[in-house]
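Pasting two entries for a bug report.
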Amino acid sequence: RLILYKRIAAAANDDDLRTLQVELIDRFGLLPDPAKNLFRQMKLKLQAQKLGIKKLDAGSKETRIEFEEQPSVDPMVIIKLIQARPKQFRLEGSSILKYIDTMETPEQRFTATEALLGELGS
């Protein structure tokens, strides 16, 4: 199991993750929800790294995004998000963006985080 976790964590891109997921399905059959969530989480991690996000923490009440010193995200995208939805988005200092929303289930957190990273990447 540890070897599989290491291989998942070492995936360099979405294609690597898909290949590994197909391999696991071939070996063990359909993946249980926790395994599917692990792959989904790794996909988000890869997407966040491309955007220059150092840390992403999605909780039940808010998502906290900490950017690297020189992120790939256009600052105007962040400013427009804050201006369009000031009750949902806030900056903390110069490197942390907070997204405030109720996301009680893991599915809600995944969906909101995927949408947020999509908005930041546009």
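Entry 2 (this is the one that rendered wrong in the viewer):
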Amino acid sequence: MIHSALRHIDKMLGFNTVSAHCDIPCKIYDPSGAQVAALSVIRFLDLINELADKSPQNLTDQAQLLRLVREKEIHAKKVKDEITVIWGDYFKQPQFEQYPDIHQLVHSIMLAASACKQHVTKEVGHNLLDLVNQFSEAFWTTKGVETYTANCPYPPSLEVVYPKLA
């Protein structure tokens, strides 16, 4: 009954729909989501370019291309979202003092993610991953956690920064 009343009020007043990180200081932040999204962008770029080399392309191939491009752009946006939340909610004055260039790095990530949405060259994806890895290393360092790099265990099998967890 209350849901019905709220829907009726919403129809009359036209509430704006919003979404946000919960903004509760849960202190649970991890850049791995951004890393996986950046790796996914690279993988989608690989698949897009493999499909582009196929000639002739049938309707199924064209539909697959559309899905790959859509997912590439969704994951590039996810990189932006994940990095923005950590930068905006976790990084405070002590972290800024430790990494005074973090604002420029975040801006570079935003530009690189946009480039991934605009282009289909693998280089833009690699640049995005490199920047996200730099951010990840900075993030873990501010938490006093050592890091190491290793190839991820799935395609595209590229180097990723991981925290050393004891």
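Dev reply: Rendering is fixed now. As a check, the viewer should reflect this: The radius of gyration is 20 Å.
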